[in-house]
Amino acid sequence: IIAAVVSAFAGGMSDGTRKAPQSSVAVTPDLSGHLISFDHNGGDAFSLDEIEVVFQTQDQKVALSPRDVGTSCIAFNKTGGSGSMIKAGERFVVQGSDPGWTKGITFGPGGGTTTLQENNRISWVSIDRQSAKTIASGNFVL
């Protein structure tokens, strides 16, 4: 009985928290297509259905997930394959729209419009929604 209890605690049976996937992800912005590509370069696979991507500039911040397609973004999907699991060697994209008044990528109107402008430094983080922990993060210049 003692061995079973120790094994259960060591195995995490008593802990209700979920471990977030950890991945290496490279980001490539495409101003002409108004999209940002995410290439999974290694680490744990993750499901698009369970993540949120947050983009932040100095004064603007937007959080997006696949459920925002049609309201805050045009696309949030895997490229070149089916299903929602993203594993090493695969890519997903988040597509916004043309802001019209500047070169950049606009996401909105859910919670307000956010425009990521050309030549600005953008921070990003992908978050596992169930655990609220970071999967991958980084910066890029649009």
Characterize the structure shown.
The protein has 142 residues and is mainly β. Helices cover 6% and strands 46% of the residues. The chain is built from one helix and twelve strands; from the N terminus they run αββββββββββββ. Strands 1-2-8-6 form a four-stranded antiparallel β-sheet, with no helix packed on it. A four-stranded antiparallel β-sheet has the order 5-4-11-12, with no helix packed on it. A two-stranded antiparallel sheet has the order 3-7. The N and C termini lie far apart (59 Å). The relative contact order is 0.24.
Estimated share of beta-strand residues: over 45%
Overall pLDDT score: 88
The number of helical runs is 1
Helix content: under 10%
Largest sheet geometry: 4 strands, antiparallel
Structure characteristics:
four-stranded antiparallel β-sheet; 12 strands; mainly beta; 1 helix; 46% strand; 142 residues; single chain
Quick rundown:
The protein is mostly beta strands and 142 residues long.
